[in-house]
Structures are given as C-alpha cells and as structure tokens.
C-alpha cells in the first residue's frame, strides 16, 4: 500500500471525482462535497478518507503518520470559518462524527454527535443559544452517546441511571426534566463513566475527537457491519469507511427546528411524488429509530410561512439533486431555528416495482438512456415483482393495519426474535418476524423471514428501509399490535397469537390477516414487460431454467426462459411410490433382478418426461442422467422397522439389506461412486433412463409437440467415459426410434464439473455434442471445499478478505474461471461453435454475468424465479462488454 | 481404428521389427520369428497379430472381415510345407494354438494343444508314429483341453470320468492305461461333451481351429488375466493377445523325447551359469505345473550321447540368443524323438540381486553399455536387495528345507488359501501363504503375502516364477511339508502347525524355521553401490524421503536420500501420551484453554523435531503444518466410557464432549476444515508448531548440527492464505531467534495440492519460497475421486480401459500433469528457479519419472524403501530425456 498524500478533504475543495472518488471519500463524503459545490446549505466540515481508515485497520489500529497534524489544521480552519472554537465558554465548536463507506451500509457503523461539549463548553452553548436546558440536554446526550460508542459503556446502564432520576423526582417524560435535573443526571453519568472506565469523562475536545474518529474507524469491523457486508456481498477487499467531521446543527432547538428524510419519488411504487417524513424539535436519530410517528412531507406547507418556505426550498433542492444524480434521490435534512441544512443525499433504495417505474420515467423525462436504465437496475430486485399476491377472491379476515413499507404477500408463523427466525427458517418453516421496532441486530432474522411486522416506526424506519432493500415484505408501525415478550404473544384487538401461529401480511396495502391467506401469481405490468423486451434486445446469451417438473417448467416459461438447462432426474426417484422400487433396484443381487426393478421404474420416468416435454414445447430440454451416489436413496440404518418390512417385501434378508447400506457408505460421497461412474458399471440404469426419455419424446411428438431432448452425462473426467455413454445413448435411442418408426432430434452432451474435464475438454468434445458447466461441483473440486462443510470457514474467509465473495454464489474468475476458459477454448477447437452453457448456481448470479458473457457462453440456466433477473443481468453484461470494446 | 492390412505373419517372413513390433506380434510371435530367421529349429507356424485380437474384442467378439480367408491360406501353406494335411488318416497336421501378448503374462491366458485330432486323424497319427497308444492318449488329452478351454466343460468332470474308468479296471497310474482303455475313455469324454454342450464333439479341424483361436482371444479378458494386468500395471490401452499357430511337436513320445525350460544365467543370483530343468517323456505343461520334480539341465550330459548332443546344441543356441537379446534369456524347448525344437525365447524374469549381477556382468562382457544397463533395470526390484535377512547370530530351529526360489527373509502367520491371505494381510498381519502348488488363482494372495511356501514344484514352477517376478520371498518344492486342508494344518516332521502359527522361511537357502526368527538389515553389495553410483551420475532430480521420525530418517539416509520431502506432523499427535492433550486442545471452549493445551504439546513436538534434525544433519527437512481435519483426532461416539472419563478429566461435560464430536463431523472431510484453514481460524495451533520447529532448530544448532528446516503450509488455494501464514511463520521464527540470539536458515513454502493452487501459482509464489506437489490430493480433486471410495470403480475403470493406470500410483499426465506444468511455469515466472518437489505417492513411481524430469522438478520424495528405486528411476528418466533430445 502506497503512503497517502492526504487524509482529509474539506467539503467540495479539491475533492476527487470520477468513478474512483467513492473509494476515497465514501458515499456521504461525496454527496456533501457535491452539495457544497452546488451552493446548497451544507454545514461546514471535512471528510477523512476511506484509505485512511484502511491504513488504520491494516496497521493494527494505529493512526497513520501525520493524520493528527493534518486534523489539527482542518479543525483550525473550521474554527476560523465558523468563528467558533473548541471548548469555548462563549461559542463552542460542536461536531458530528459520522461513518460513510463507499457502499452504503445504513445504520451498521457508529456515529457521535455533539462532540466538543465539556463542563466549560456546555456553559458556552447555553450562553450562545440562550437555552440552558437545551445545552445541558445536549451534554447529557453526548456523554451517553460517546460513552456508548467510544468508551464501551452500556446503553442500558445510562437508561437505568436516567430512569432512577426520573423515579426520584417522579418525572414522566424526558421533556419534563428541568435544567437542574439534567445537571444532576450529568453528574451521575460522569460518575458511572469514571467507575466503568477507571478514568474521568474526557474533557479535552481534541481527545474526544481523536477517540471518536478511532471509534468510527473501529466500527467498520463490528459484527453487525461484517455480517451486513457478507449478506450484501460487499467485497472484503475494499476496506474501511470514510469519516465526516461536520459542524453540528440542531433540529431539537424548539418548534422552528426539526429534522427529516425525503425521497424525490415514491420508493415503494416509483411514482413521481415527493415522499418524505419529518419531526419537529427532534434529532435525526429519532426519525430513523421510529420512536415517534413522524409527519408527512406534504404537511409542511400547512404549518405556517416558515415551514412552507422550507418546503419550497427543499422541493427546489430535490429538483437540482435529481438533475445531478439523474436518479431518485434520498436526502436527510435538519432545520435549526428556521434555517435548512442538508446532511446527506444519495440515490435512494427502492422496491423492484419502483425500480422499474422510476427507470421508465427517467427515460421518458430524458434524464437517462435505455442502456443507462438497464445498467442501473438490480437484477435481484426484479424477482420481487414476480412474487405472488394474495388471491383477491379468497376470504380473509383483516385483523389490523400498519404502513405498507415493502410490497408482497407474506404468509408464515410468527416469531419474536431474530435468532428464532433464523432457526425456524433453517428448519424449512415460513416465518414472519414480529418486533416492536427492528434494529441492526435483527438483520440476520430479516434475511430469513418471509415478512416483517413492526409495531412502531414509519416508512423511513429501520425496518422499512432494510426490508425494501432486501425485497422482504414488510408492514411497519402497526400500532394495533401489542407484543408481550415474556409469554411470547401478539395481541391484535381481542385476538391473541402465540409464537408459531400463522398470520398473513400484505406489504402492498399494510393489512394484516388472520391465518394463512392463499396467494396467486401476479400479472406482470407493462413496465416489467418493457424492461424485459429491452433486455432481450441486448443480451447475447440465452436463458434457460433448472427445472425437474412440468409446473416449474411452466413457471419458468412465463418468466421468459428459452429451454431447460438442467433437469435432474434423481428428484423423480424420491417420490413416495417410486423410492421403494429404486431401493429394490439398488439392493438387487443380480443383473436380472436389477433390470426387472428398472423396468418398473421406466413408466414413471417416461411420464415425467412427457409432462416436461409438453410444457417446453418447441424448446430444448437438457436432461441429466442419474447423478448422486446410490446410497443417497437408501434408508438410514436407524430405520430398523422400515428396513425389516421392506426387506421382507422384496425378498432379501434384513442382514443383506443392512450390509448393502454399509457397503455403499462413502467417506467422501462428493468424490464417490456417482454420475457416469454408475453408468459405466451399471449401464442398465442409464439404458432405462435413455429409453424413458426417448419413448416420452416419441409419445409427445405424435401429439404434435416439438420435442428437443438433450441427454447429459454427469461427473465425467475422461473422453473414454463420454465415448462409452454416447454409444449407449445412441444405441438405445436408435432402438426406440426404429421400434416406433419415429425420428427424434436429440443431442448427447456432458456436464463439465471436474477440473480434469476442463483440462481434456478437447478430447471430450470429440464425442460430446455440447457442454454444460456444473460450476457447483467444479468450484468444490477446484477449491477443495465441500459445500456442506465449507460453512465452518467460508464466512471467516470472507471476513478476513481471503475470499472476496462466496465462490459458490459468484464465479471465482481467477481459478474456476481459468478452467472454464480452457474448457470453452479446447471444446470449440474440436467442435467449432458448440453449445456451452452453465447450470450451476452461479449461472443466475448477476455479478458473474460479464465474465460468462466474455467467455462466450451460449446460455445460462437458473431457477425459474431468477429467470427475469438473468435476462436483465445478461443484458447488462452485454452492454458492459460492448462499452469496454468501444474504448 | 484403421482397418488391418494383414492378420497373420508366417514365422520370420515379413515380420515387423523395431520397438513397435511387439505390439503387433506379441512377445512369443517375435521370438519365434527371430529364432526362425536365425536358423534355429522352430516348428513351422504363424502368428495372428495382437491388433487382430483387438479388433475382435472391440467389435463385440466378432472375427474381423477376411481373417477366415487369410487363415485358410496360411493353413494351406503349413500343409504344403510340412507335407501333412488337416484331418488326414495318413499323416494329419496337428497344431498348438497359444497366446502371446506384447507384455509377458505367464500362464494367465489359454492354450490348446494337439488341435486337428478327430476320429479319423487319430488313426493317421497312430499310423504315422507307429504308436497307437500315443495317438489315442493325444486325442483324449485334446478332448480334455479343448473341452475345458473352448467348450466350457469342467476340468474336474473329465478327471471324474478318468478316475471312474481307472477304478473300473483297477488301473493305478495314467501310464498303465492301454489303447483299449483310452478308446473307451474317449467315448465317455465325447458323451460327456455332447451332454454338456448339446452338440457332438467337433470333428472338423477347421472348426476346431477357428473356435480355438476365438477361445485364446477371449482368454485376454478372463478374470485372471485382468487381475494380472491390474496388479502388474499393464496399460489397459494395449488390448489383445497375439495367437501363435504352430505345428505340434511331442515331448511325450518316449524316452528320447522330453521338454524343458532353461535360463542362460541364474535367475536368482545372477551368476553366469546355465540354469534349467527338464522332464523326459513329458509335455511342457508338466514342467510348469510342478507335478513331477524335474531333472537339472546339467544332468543332460550324463544321459547318453543323444542327450549330450542336445545339451551341446542348447548351449550353443543359448549363446546365440544371448548375443541377440544382449540379456539373460529364458527359453522353452521340446525334444521329439531325439530332435530339438525351440518353442519360445525371451528375456528372463529375475530377482533384484540377479538383475544387478547380470547387468554388471553384461557390461563387463561388452554386451551392453552403462546407460543400457541402467535403463533396463526395474526400479521396483531394487528394493528387494534392501529387505532384511535373518540375523545370522539368532538361534533358529531348521525344521525343513525346500528350493530357494526367490530370496529374502519372510516371517509370518501361515494360511492355506489365497483369500485368507488377502483378508489377514488387510487386517495388518504378516502372512506366509502355504500351498501344495500355486495356480494363477493364487496371484492375489501372493501379492499380499510376506512369503510363499509350496510343497511341490521346481524352480520353474508357477510359484517360483511369479514370486521372483513380484519380489516375494519363496521356498518351493518343500516335500517335507504335508498339508491337511480339512483341518488346516501343516505337518513338518513331527511338528504340526495350525493356521495362524508363525513360521520363518529363507528364500536365499530354502530353509524353513520354527516360529519368528529375528531379521537384520542387509549390507548392500558392491554391485548395488556401483549401480547407485552410476544412477547418481545421470539423474537431474534430487531424492528426498517421506519420514516422520528419526528411525525412518536414518533408514532413508542409508538408502541415499538427500533430505526429508515430507514430514507429517499429525502422526506425532496420535501417540498415546499426547492424544489426550490434543483432544483437550480441540475441545477447548476458549482461546485461553486451547493455548494452555497447546503449550503442553509444544515440548513433545519440539523433541520430535530435534530427533529428526539430528538424523538429517546437513540436509533439508520439509515439515508440513497440521493437515487433517480436527475430528480425526477425536474418539468415536461409541467410545462412551472413554469419553466420560476423559471429559471428567479435562473438566467439561459429557454432553459438551459429544456435541463437539458431532459438530466437527463432516460430509466430505477430504474437502473440509483442514490444512491452512485451521491455521487461519486457529493461528495459535500453527504458532505452537512453528515455535516447536524453530526451538528444536536452535537446540540442535547449538550442538553443531547443520539444520535446514522448511515449513510447509498445506491445502491452500489462495495467495492470501499463504501471505497470512508466511507472516505468522516469519513472526514466530523471529521471536524464537531473537530470544535465543541464534540465526536459523529456514524457508517457508507450500504444498500444491488443489487445482486452484496450480491455477494461481504465480500469485502464491509471491509469498511461498518453494512448492511441493501433493499429488495424492491433487489427483483426488482433479479427478473428483476420493481415494477411500474410488476402489468401488477404479479397478473396473482400469479393466475397461477408461483409466490406463491407477492415477494414484502413476501421474495422470493429461490432466493432473497439465496442472502441474502450469504451476511450475507460473511459480517460476515469479520466483525464477524456485525449488519445486513432489511428495505424493507418485513421486516414487518409476513410470512417472520421465514426466517429472521433463517438468524440471527439483526433487522427488518417497518412502525410505523406495529411495534406491527412485534414484534409479530418475537416472533412467534423465537418460531417456537426454536420448530424446539428441534425436
């Protein structure tokens, strides 16, 4: 790492610009600089750069050389510009110290407000504002916040001291405290801090600032932030947050003061209307925390000329900012005694529906081009608009209503804690997380929940913002709800719900329904169809789907898939009436018995394929022959009764049954007797499957269905395996076609999922008519990581920056990608233009799309609900590649 | 596969020559052609080529087009040349049909003798030979052999019929049967064949020939042959045997007839002396089967002028053949009524000691050069001369004596069946296989036995030849032994041994000792040292050893190793007094408890390393940090009592103990939480190990030992892992060196054992100072084959030709080799000339040596006993590469 020329940047002065600027200043730093330069009212201040924080972290939490001196210069400048000075008993300089990383991580890192107050400065503040109560309230807030963030004191200890004081003087609300009360409270607070930390509360503002900055640096690596980065796939290679140090302005100086947030368009629907909330006589934290229910932005004009003026000023600022950002903007502001101050502006988070609407409107308004609109959309969000809605015709009992914070229909069992939410979801349950209000600690729970319901908070509350961000259905501020955490009940009206009871919530209208309301598929809006049509114009790769049954095929087709990229045949083996026969086949002691059992499985498989072929009429269907090791189909040894019964039924001894289970056990099943290895040793299994596929094709073709089966051999590492199975497939196919007198256009190819298959892809391509990358297994073998076991260290590897992303979610271009490139080149050197697709999880991953596009893949295949996102992501990839080539 | 121009080759006429000739004609076909051209007495005949057999097998056992017609021409030629004709009642043409593959597979495939006999021809044979009894005996032998080999009749059924006839007429020996008896026997045989096969015994000689040839073709794929090829690593890519069709000559026409085998030098010691055995009035099979104890070649001169003449003729022929083969020759001959016929000649199989002696002698005699001698030696055989011998000073009770068929000292528990041998050996026991005589069915048992003892058979018997071939100690023809298979006892004199009792046998002198006689290391002979010295002149790669303790290090050093290539530290963890502490460390619930347990392990590890460093004074020692997943060190859940006791001892609950075992369980431990992954998450473990290594180095250096430790990080896939561990190693090393004020020259490198590590080797080489290929794991991941589970399909894959060899024994150059090449190039592009070694099993494999040499590896590392073989193999590789470059 090179030494840094400069650590601090005064707002708007000599700030870096261009795409790399965010990596230096962070999102907040950039926006404050931009607004300053636009002449918007921004409190003076400066940003300590992200690389400074990085240097601090990488050196083991030491301040880089020269930072202290540079900071002194900037503080001196601030003092001069504002005519205030640190610790002044006349007019003290007070600062906010906030985090602001390159990628927005709302609420994850720490903030210190009112910094600069001490026993002397509090008098100065009182004198300057003429408001002694305000000054001492600010001081006690500062002790509390600084104590919590910087000194490691406990928030609830401060609360206890506060409550004790209120009890002592029989005070009800915080606002009822007098100056004397506050002074007494400050003394108690300082005593607590001294006891807790072994040192008096620091009185030197410079010490406060230095430790405050370090605390914000440190908060980059607090568990919340680490977990947020992992969940949101924020690369661990970009390390460190920026820190903005800015003159305080106070929204809590009375009824001509206030604070709020606003979106230039509706973040839920995308409609072009200002959508904002504010509180008078409050600090910003009060809005986000959802403690008081805020006023709507539109109400501002009705509150008298001062507020109407502020409103008009804000509307104008919003127009300016939209013109600059060419996007919907989310802003934070504070009004101090009638004067507006801008604290933050950024492209606002939005729902999938809003994303589409806003993009279409911005194009119409001439602000952005079609390509820009496509590039700017988040493929993952697109799936939100595909989620089912409640059936309008279904009977439902509305039992309450909250704010429609994030759309969709969620049905699930209620739980009251984030941890419980994770556990229940891991057990396969659909869960609704019910909370008074959510905090950053609830993130993991929200990720796993089907929906979120909160009692307090507005549309800008933590719950609302985060739920919209992750596309989770949410109803917030439902005051009709009463939670009792002790006996884990939710009371709505006269109904009492226990943990585990079912509720349904509608994020579109905020309604809460009793029990489980049935859902239906949505009609796609015109906007969605328009975006998809544009995406289809640009993309170079086709989109297929991974589907094993006609219903999934039909769903994927509705979403625009162009074929089945992976049809796993083993799922069909597990159905109840089949698994017994499958086991019989595996337990067979002779070729004859096995063949007989296989002949009974054939009609099942054939009818499965018929259904799939009909659903995919006219589109190719790539069917993978049996993949998992046979032991996966056998019962567990513990199922003694079942084994005894089944053994009797199929005429073998219990001992033989058990010994077969034992003998098929594997130490490393991932690397075991599976895939083509089964086909080589038990060709009769593959023959049955091919026969079922071809007979199904013949049946549907005679119905007039256009059937394009592709038969795929899994887990191979050698051309010789391919040659053997190709011969088998061709022979059986010919037998079936000859017998029926029908010609079926079929292909025979292979899954490329082992490093060796990539390395000898030229040899394999002599026989294989197409390739499909199985990047899940290819990643497992290339990295030597079992997906089932990797969870023990992959998260730590991500946090340590060893893995920039989870390679099972996003293609590892350096390693796995190198093998894929080799395979494509070698394969096509022998069979020019051969079809090469990808059917691993990473096929549906937007972050892998540019790489796959450059690789020249023919298609990506993903689960049905990821198809629209893949259509968009592949279009974005194609546009990016085109733009790169132009350069 | 191209069409074949030609299927048959008349002996010596237009035969292909050069290195590829064997692939066409097979070893036997070549030798018969060569001898014919030399003017040696070879019965006329021709060879059907190996590719013909291959075409037959690959087309599903169909004769290639035109073979039948070509065969007719060749038979007509034979009839003309010999003045005999097929089925003649005057002088019938009789043929032998024998297998003969490119690589010698003695006794594994089928043979048919006396072919051409039928009800008419038998009369012709009688007339021509004037010996009716001989003719009918030949006919009944033919029915028996043809019935067994071609028609699928059972050998023991024929025996039953024969015995019934002998009982009926109270006949003792076979030779007591009259012509009338034989005629009656032939009728019974034919009845049995007709009943068994549903058709009369074929009378048409052409049918006999065609089916006979097919049967020999088929015998290529009999289970014996398949298993032999697998054990001897004969590539499954070379398919098919040649078939020699040759005029019969009879060694059983009376006392002026006979048959034998001879070696031009002693195959056991290598001494230049003719070493041969023969039987009068017998067929070749009788010698090999060991049914009658044969006469020594030297006796021939004492048997009258005819035999003395034959002996002189043979001595001359042997000289000629040695001159041609420039090697010790093994030959088969038959004398028919005083006339010598040569049936086979080939380079003879020999012991390791003989191999060395013969090579040295041939150089001295000017027949071959030093390079030729080195190239011709079998590295695997070299280890034979390293095996311990019985301690000359030890008391031993000689209880019997047999023939010294294959040298060495073997001590073990006796078993009487090949299967038992395999089972006991698999259970880790040392076993001596005791048999009346061995057959090809005993091969698997012989592979696993420490030694072989047979009651019957000479030095050319199956047991002797095979045991010498595989370097197994053998004493054969020990007539003093009496086996009772029913109660599984071996009686020698008045001693009775049960299965499982211990015996010791000396293959050097043929003695059998009671119980377990202690053994001592051999002194290497001058010859061995000479060969090794020459090998060391040529080789370009250094030889290291895989050793975890001072004793193994010392042994390897004696064998000439130049360092430790792999010292596995985990083996040290399993020792009795340590494993409890290791478990305590794993079960620790906090960093502190874990660190405390680690601090108790440190002295153990340190003293291990001290011992190893002392043993390797002056040579580098490459130590791998902890590799296996932690669960491998924990007890099994079933060990309830142990767990309860140990839990109590270390102060945790039984439930916690069990839940840790459960939580550490992995689905695919090969791809699990192991190697560097442990080092990243629990750096304290690596720190302890590095500290132990460096402290040990400091201790031995102060003693004057030259210590060159190399610290190796296992299982990594990323440069970031390497950077982290390098920092750790460097930091701890510095701490230790600073504390002791001593400088230790150490290096820090990595194992390259995952495909991704190869793919990003350039990035890794930025930090790693050396590479060592862990080709076991690299092969597992590149192929997606778990070594533990692959046994289910690898043998079948080899038999099917999908895997030419076991990739865990011999480097897969196409796949794994490609990755290795990449890694070497990328690694050295960043760190020119960096040391790159190999420590996987394949490092000691002679068949991989040329590839590893071309790769430019710095060293190969193998187990101590493979070191001399590796010295030779790497020299051979260097010579081959040199020769290739000259071309």
Automatic annotation (TrEMBL), chains A, B:
The active site is at 462 (tele-phosphohistidine intermediate), 839 (proton donor). Pfam families: PEP-utilizers, PEP-utilizers_C, PPDK_N. It is an enzyme of class 2 (transferase). Residues 528-877 form the PEP-utilising enzyme C-terminal domain. SUPFAM superfamilies: Glutathione synthetase ATP-binding domain-like, Phosphoenolpyruvate/pyruvate domain, Phosphohistidine domain. Keywords: ATP-binding, Kinase, Magnesium, Metal-binding, Nucleotide-binding, Pyruvate, Transferase. Mg(2+) binds at residues 753, 777. It catalyses: pyruvate + phosphate + ATP = phosphoenolpyruvate + AMP + diphosphate + H(+). Residues 67-297, 313-359 form the Pyruvate phosphate dikinase AMP/ATP-binding domain. Its cofactor is Mg(2+). Substrate binds at residues 568, 624, 753, 774-777. Its EC number is 2.7.9.1. One of its GO terms (molecular function) is kinase activity. Residues 429-510 form the PEP-utilising enzyme mobile domain. InterPro entries: ATP_grasp_subdomain_1 (IPR013815), PEP-util_enz_mobile_dom (IPR008279), PEP_util_AS (IPR018274), PEP_util_C (IPR000121), PEP_util_CS (IPR023151), Phosphohistidine_dom_sf (IPR036637), PPDK_AMP/ATP-bd (IPR002192), Pyruvate_phosphate_dikinase (IPR010121). Belongs to the PEP-utilizing enzyme family. This is Pyruvate, phosphate dikinase. It comes from Kipferlia bialata.
């Amino acid at each position: 790492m090179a030494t840094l020329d400069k650590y601090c940047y005064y707002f708007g002065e000599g700030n870096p610009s261009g795409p790399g600027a965010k990596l230096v200043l962070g999102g907040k730093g950039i926006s404050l600089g931009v607004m300053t330069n636009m002449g918007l009212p921004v409190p003076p201040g400066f940003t300590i750069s992200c690389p400074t924080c990085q240097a601090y972290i990488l050196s083991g939490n030491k301040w880089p050389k020269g930072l202290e001196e540079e900071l002194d210069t900037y503080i001196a400048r601030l003092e001069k510009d504002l005519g205030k000075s640190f610790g002044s008993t006349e007019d003290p300089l007070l600062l906010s110290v906030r985090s602001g990383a390159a990628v927005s991580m709302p609420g994850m890192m720490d903030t210190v407000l009112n910094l600069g107050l001490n026993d002397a400065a509090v008098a100065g503040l009182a004198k300057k504002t003429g408001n002694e109560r305000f000054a001492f309230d600010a001081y006690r807030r500062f002790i509390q916040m600084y104590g919590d963030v910087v000194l490691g004191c406990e928030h609830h200890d401060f609360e206890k001291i506060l409550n004790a004081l209120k009890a002592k003087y029989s005070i009800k609300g915080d606002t009822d405290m007098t100056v004397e009360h506050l002074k007494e409270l400050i003394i108690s607070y300082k005593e607590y801090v001294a006891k807790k930390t072994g040192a008096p509360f620091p009185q030197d503002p410079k010490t406060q600032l230095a430790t405050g900055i370090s605390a914000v640096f440190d908060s980059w690596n607090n568990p919340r932030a680490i977990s947020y980065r992992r969940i949101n796939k924020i690369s661990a290679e970009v390390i460190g947050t920026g820190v903005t140090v800015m003159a305080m302005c106070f929204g809590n100086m009375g009824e001509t003061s206030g604070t709020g947030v606003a979106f230039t368009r509706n973040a839920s629907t995308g409609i072009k209307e200002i959508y904002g909330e504010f509180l008078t006589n409050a600090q910003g934290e009060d809005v986000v925390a959802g403690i008081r229910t805020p006023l709507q932005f539109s109400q501002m004009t009705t509150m008298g000329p001062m507020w109407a003026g502020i409103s008009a000023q804000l509307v104008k600022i919003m127009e300016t900012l939209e013109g600059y950002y060419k996007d919907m903007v989310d802003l934070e502001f504070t009004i101090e005694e009638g004067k507006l101050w801008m604290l933050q502006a950024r492209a606002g988070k939005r729902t999938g529906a809003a994303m589409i609407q806003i993009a279409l409107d911005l194009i119409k308004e001439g602000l952005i081009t079609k390509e820009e609109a496509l590039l700017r959309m988040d493929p993952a969000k697109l799936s939100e608009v595909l989620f089912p809605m409640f059936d309008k015709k279904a009977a439902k009992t509305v039992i309450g209503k909250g704010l429609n914070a994030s759309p969709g229909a969620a049905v699930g069992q209620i739980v009251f804690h984030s941890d419980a939410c994770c556990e229940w979801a891991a057990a396969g349950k659909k869960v609704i997380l019910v909370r008074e209000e959510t905090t950053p600690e609830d993130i993991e729970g929200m990720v796993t929940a089907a929906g979120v319901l909160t009692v307090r908070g507005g549309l800008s509350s933590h719950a609302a913002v985060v739920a919209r961000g992750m596309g989770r259905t949410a109803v917030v501020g439902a005051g009709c709800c009463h939670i009792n955490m002790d006996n884990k009940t939710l009371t709505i009206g006269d109904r009492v719900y226990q943990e585990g009871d079912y509720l349904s919530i509608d994020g579109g209208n905020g309604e809460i329904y009793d029990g489980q309301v049935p859902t239906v598929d949505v009609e796609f809006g015109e906007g969605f169809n328009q975006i998809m049509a544009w995406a289809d114009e640009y993309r170079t790769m086709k989109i297929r789907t991974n589907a094993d049954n006609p219903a999934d095929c039909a769903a994927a087709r509705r979403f625009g898939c162009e074929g089945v990229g992976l049809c796993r045949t083993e799922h069909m083996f597990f159905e109840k009436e089949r698994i017994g026969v499958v086991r019989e086949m595996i337990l067979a002691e002779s070729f004859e018995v096995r063949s007989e059992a296989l002949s009974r499985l054939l009609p099942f498989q054939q009818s499965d394929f018929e259904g799939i072929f009909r659903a995919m009429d006219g589109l190719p269907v790539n069917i993978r022959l049996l993949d998992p090791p046979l032991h996966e189909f056998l019962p567990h040894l513990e199922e003694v009764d079942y084994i005894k019964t089944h053994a009797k039924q199929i005429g073998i001894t219990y001992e033989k049954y058990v010994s077969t289970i034992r003998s098929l056990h594997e130490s490393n099943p991932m690397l075991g007797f599976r895939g083509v290895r089964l086909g080589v040793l038990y060709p009769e299994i593959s023959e049955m499957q091919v026969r079922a596929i071809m007979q199904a094709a013949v049946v549907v073709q005679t119905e007039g269905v256009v059937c394009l089966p592709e038969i795929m051999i899994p887990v191979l590492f050698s051309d010789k395996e391919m040659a053997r199975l190709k011969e088998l497939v061709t022979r059986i196919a010919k037998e079936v076609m000859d017998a029926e007198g029908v010609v079926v256009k079929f292909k025979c190819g292979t899954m490329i999922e082992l490093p060796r298959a990539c390395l000898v892809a030229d040899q394999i391509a002599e026989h294989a008519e197409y390739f499909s990358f199985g990047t899940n297994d290819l990643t497992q073998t290339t990295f030597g990581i079992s997906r089932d076991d990797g969870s023990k260290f992959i998260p730590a590897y991500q946090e340590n920056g060893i893995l920039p992303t989870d390679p099972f979610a996003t293609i590892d271009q350096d390693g796995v990608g190198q093998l894929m490139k080799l395979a494509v080149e070698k394969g096509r050197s022998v069979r020019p233009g051969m079809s090469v697709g990808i059917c691993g999880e990473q096929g549906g991953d937007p972050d892998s799309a540019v790489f796959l596009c450059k690789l020249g893949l023919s298609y990506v295949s993903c689960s049905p609900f990821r198809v629209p996102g893949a259509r968009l992501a592949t279009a974005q990839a194609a546009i990016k590649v085109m733009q790169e080539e132009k350069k």
